[in-house]
Amino acid sequence: METTVSDRGMVTIPAELRRRLDIEPGDKLRWETDEEGTLSVEVLKQRYGAFDDFEPIPMGGGGSESHDIAGHEDDPALSETS
């Protein structure tokens, strides 16, 4: 595969490589060369939030009970009615 460098120094990553390497908009590329002038490129995946790598965990019960922010069950007798 070949690409051409534009007059502004930009190149297009061929679609086949973008698909194979799962390169998406917002990802970064880290460019490095060695002493012989060999160029290597590393794909740095964009992370959208601090907790994107965490899997959600169930908070118990599949029922309709509600919990306050500390995880305690709400007592319907204590809730205000309007």
UniProtKB/TrEMBL annotation:
One of its GO terms (molecular function) is DNA binding. Residues 54-82 are annotated as: Disordered. Gene3D superfamilies: 2.10.260.10. It comes from the Archaea. Residues 3-49 form the SpoVT-AbrB domain. Residues 65-75 have a biased composition (Basic and acidic residues). This is Transcriptional regulator, AbrB family. It comes from Halorhabdus tiamatea SARL4B.
